[in-house]
Structure formats: structure tokens, C-alpha cells
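Record format v2
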Amino acid sequence: MASRASVTIEHVAQAAGVSRQTVSRVINKGPNVKPEVRERVEAAIAALGYVPNLSARRMGGGKSYLILAVNDRQRTIENWRAGRGNDWVDQMLHGGITECEKHGYHLIFELIDTDPATAPRQLSNAIAALRPDGVILTPPHSDNEELPVLLAERGIPCARIGRRPGTQFIDVFMDEEEAAAEITARLIALGHMRLAFIAGSPEYGNSTKRLAGFSRALAASGLGEAAGCVAKGNFRFADAAQEIERLLTRADPPTALIAENDEMAFAAMHVADRLGLEVPQQLSIASFEDTPGVRFSVPPLTAIRQPTAEMIAAACSQLIAASAGGPAHGSIKLPYRLVERATTGPAPAPAKRKTG
Amino acid sequence: MASRASVTIEHVAQAAGVSRQTVSRVINKGPNVKPEVRERVEAAIAALGYVPNLSARRMGGGKSYLILAVNDRQRTIENWRAGRGNDWVDQMLHGGITECEKHGYHLIFELIDTDPATAPRQLSNAIAALRPDGVILTPPHSDNEELPVLLAERGIPCARIGRRPGTQFIDVFMDEEEAAAEITARLIALGHMRLAFIAGSPEYGNSTKRLAGFSRALAASGLGEAAGCVAKGNFRFADAAQEIERLLTRADPPTALIAENDEMAFAAMHVADRLGLEVPQQLSIASFEDTPGVRFSVPPLTAIRQPTAEMIAAACSQLIAASAGGPAHGSIKLPYRLVERATTGPAPAPAKRKTG
DNA sequence: GGTAGCCGTGTGAACGTTCACATACATCTT
DNA sequence: AAGATGTATGTGAACGTTCACACGGCTACC
């Protein structure tokens, strides 16, 4: 057991009969330490229960062993307020903490305004206070051009999540366009000839990519773009519900809906229920976000499983490597998965289709 | 805009024509600074974009401006792995980050093994590395007697969540027994005469308290304890489903179920569906955990809304006060709320009751 | 009118670590 | 055998802040 006062590197040095620096070399796995001495030091560390003080390490010019993950403040807080969970945050913690722990790092999570006028200052303040070894930018911050530059100026490696990869920073992403194209193609293969894409917000770069995938699949199928329509749901239940109702009650309604997030997919379910449309017999619904709510709802929804935790874990891993002298740029593409559950099925037979 | 190299207190001091210490007094809101000088320093801080370095502050013997929240590693990771969300984690972040931000603090979230043999060492390592100004212990760590003592020895204030309050530490809690009694009484008032409590695990102290409330309400109602039965669901879907099925298929099945968490409540819904029991017409189901899944499921469940975010926020607030010289003990009781939704209703008429 | 006390400010040291450099010894080269 | 190279270790300074204390000026009291 450690004694009351904190154990410092000096105590370990004395116990092992070496100097501070040698102990430092051992804990940082540096070269040029005799195996015998290394063992002696390690024994002393274990005996005294020594754990290096992170603040002091940072002060000494070393690493802070902190990875800062920044999230969209408005959306996160809105989700909290509304009593909806933040599955994204949960997944992020999953990947981030798990990976950081492996390397003796700690993940620290902060909220930053999306407003481009204030975001740089907020990030600047956070890094000035925390001095993290790396920063993870999540959507929509990952689409901000100013933030990575600001970090680069201060020599802090930066990883962007879910962004079309560039060459200057670490980009971790999945192929959003491909995923959108795949789910669209799958619905077309099921016989659907009129499809709708319930879009989030153009503020999120991913929205644009997914829409492109939707259009591409329509074109590739031979149905042509006219077979698809787009509704703006703004990622929100109420907005989406209104648009979806408009879509489903018009003359030639779509038989398949692809919603960009779970909330809008639930809105679709809700509207279908209200209009007496059976899912999936009369209407297929797919979500682009595979949250617990989506998985465990009744019926469970077909969805794209985004590798959120994996992306954050990869970002942490890259950032940690970068802070140890590795490259501070590169791109990692992670696979998504289309999970077909109970809300998608063959298109209704044209004859039986209800109109109105 | 801040310049490339980091701005230190010394730069501010020079710009304002004062000494380090005076700047320090200003940023720490210390007394004995002329209003005129204070203004000058504040202007310099704003002009240079100065933000104190947390590591240096800690090294100087000051605060770390870090609150450490520790969670149950096994359960959290199991939830992540299973693809269920961790609403608890999300709520915790909600309360914690929001409150910490207000005071210029940062919340840092760590997982610690529940095993009493390793927990103290893990906590010890975490605080040696991080040197937080306060630690929040969540269930079941809040029931561990050793952890708060360890923290007290190192002079770190500690807040326990959801624990019967003591006198030595900061305890933030809701009345679990009362909540269990209330929901039980409510179901009895709806005419239910045979009730079941789907218990989690005695490892969680709250389980015991809730069970006590359940028994108390039964006794108080005049029905007597014989009207209630207890199933051990271990907080898990599969375990709960099995026990619930056993309960519902026996000779004289309960007409109302109270599950200690959402997962077990969903298990109850699942079993009811399988057995062809209509909810709430033939069976009432209530959850003791009001997660987004519970709120947005179809039908939405009746549940106890625990003030999780509020408890963490209160804990942060108390810890921050304690680290500023306030009392490091005290207890705060926060109100829960019984939210009646669509899964509870009047007991089925005795005549119509199906048996088997 | 001296001295006790408070107010406002500054100075040196300390926190625990790493960095840059210095040193001692061993090994290889010519 | 002398120098060059490399390995293993130690020493002083630095990081940016706060703490403890010192100091000068002002007020107040007897």
C-alpha cells in the first residue's frame, strides 16, 4: 500500500539506488538501461506503488497522456434536454476509453459550440488549459477547416472523424456514400421503385455524401433520379414527421424511406402508424444510425451500423502514435454494416397499393 | 488571436505591468487587488488570450480543476459490448460536464473494477496520475467502504451517489425505498393484489432498499407480504426473462411487475408478448429506470425517473465547493418522479383472469 | 507620534517530471 | 595504443503555476 504522502520518482530512485533519470527511462521504456537495473527499478516501483504524476510529466516537457475529444455542444445538450440519449457520446466513450486505457492514456470529453465564430476560441482555451497530446474532432467539427490548422500551429496532432480524408491530418471515416448507395440498392432490389431520403442537415458534411450515394444508386439501377425524393428532416423527430407525412400522403408516395438518423426513422414509424401503413408490408423504413433504440424497438429497425466506437478507438490509437513521434497524418477507412431487421421488405405489389 | 507559443502568466504580468503573483490573484479571484489593477490585468488576459495551464496550476500546489467520476467497469463494458447503450454514463456526463463547466472544471471519466480486491489499487493509481480535486463514486462503488477512506487519507473529497447517507462524506441520493413503496402502492391502488418485484443484484445496495420499499408498501396496504413475490433477474434480460416466465406461468400469477432496470422491464414485455398477455390490460409492467428506450418504446413504459444527471451535478458542485475550502461532508436528497405511461393500468377483473 | 495592524504588491522557492547535456566506462577501429 | 564510437548512468535546468513570506504604505489606536 502506498503511504499517505505521494510517492515521487525520487523515492523510487532512492529505493532502487539509481538516479531520477534512470527511473524516468524505465517508466518511459527508454533505451540504454541494463536489464538488471531495469528490474530493480521496476521492483521498487511496484513496492512503493509509484504512479507518475501526469501534471508533472506535462510540466517537464513530456506528454500529458490526455486525448481530448470534442463534440457538438448544441446537439449533445439538446439531446440530453429532450431525454433522448446520446448514443454517439456513449459509443465514443466506449472506443475512446478502451483504447486510451491500453496505452496509459486518459480520454477527456468536452463540448464546443458549432458556431464557427466561437469554436476556434473555445478549442483554443481547452487546449491551453488541458494541453492534450491529441484532439479528436467529431462531426460537425470535423468539417471545420479552421480547427485543425489551429491545432497544427500549436503542434497538437488532430484526428477528424467521418470526413472525406485529406492528406494533412489523421482522418478516420467510413464510406458514407457507399453505405447510402448500398442500402438504396438493396431497397431497389426488393422491388421498391419510389424511394425517399430523409435528410439531416447540410451542416453535417456526411449528409451531402449520403445523399450522393442515394442518387448514385438510383442512377445505377436504371430507375433514374426521378424515382427518389428528398425530405429535409433536420435530424429532428418533429421536422421529419411533418415532411414524411407530406410525402406519404401525396399522389404517388414512396414505398421505402431512408432516414439519416434514428430519431427521424422513429418519426417515420410514427407517421406510418398514424396513417395506418403497415411496416414493412406497405412501407419499408431504414435508419442510418444503429442505436440501442433502433435495435431494441418493436419492431427492430433495419439500419446501417456505423463503426463509431471503432473510429474513435482508431483515432486515439493514431494520435497516441503521433505523439510518440509517429506520423500526424493518414487516413483509416472502417467498414460499416447493413443490418437488415424487421422494417424493410419487398415492395408492395403495385396493384394493391393504396393511394391516399 | 493567441500567438504560436503558449501565453504564460509571465506574459500577462509584463503586459499589465504587474508581477506574476498579482495576475495569479486576479485569475483566482483572490482578495487584496486594487480594482484598477484588476481591470488592467483582465484586459491583458483578454488581449493575449491567456488561459492558465492546468498542469502547472496543479504543480504549483493549487487545484487540478479535475473531477474524477468512477464507474463500474464490468457492467459498463458489458453494456457496450452487448450494444445496449449506457444511459447511466450519458446522464452522468450530462450532469457532470454541465456543472463542471460552470466552475471552470473538467470532468474525467474512468472505469474501475468492482472486485473489492483490485478496486482500491485502481482508484489509487488513477488519483496518483490525475490528482483530481474530487472523486465521484457511483453504484456499486459507492457501497464500497474502503474507497472513501483511501481518498480521505489522501485529502481528496469524495461524493457517493445513491447510497444511504452517512456523516463523513458527501452523499447524494434519492429515496429508493420510498420510490419502490410509491410505485407498489400505486399498483395496489389500481387493484393489483399479486405483485412481483424483479430484483437486480444484492451487490447493488439500492436493490436491498427497493426491495424494502416493496415489502413496506405491501404490508401497509393490508395485503400483506404474501401478496408479493421476488424474482432474481440479475439486471439482465435473459436471466429476468426466464424468471418472469416461471412467475407468469405458475398457478396464481402476479398481475403487476416492477423491474429494477429497463432491460428487465423489456424482458417482461417480451415474455408477456410471448405468452399472449396484453399490457396493461392483463399485466402491468413498471421499470425502475427511465431510459430513452423506456420512454420511446412502443408502448412507452411506466417508470421511476431517477435524477441521475441532477445527482452527479450536485456531487460536482459539492466537490468543487469542498476543494475551495467548503465542507467535505453532507448529504443531498434529490426527488425522483413516478412517470405513468402506457404499461400500467387497472388490475384485470378477477373473473376474467386467465390461468395458464 | 510611535506602533500595531491591514491592504496591496512583489520575490524566492517549491511542486515532480523530462530535456539537454555531461560523464564514465566498454568496445571497436586503425 | 590512441582515438572514435557507443552504452549506461547522472546532473542541472526548465516547464508554469501557487505558496509562504517579505515589504512598503496607509489607517487607527492609545
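The first strand of chain B starts at residue 66 and ends at 72.
The two ends of chain B are 74 Å apart (CA to CA).
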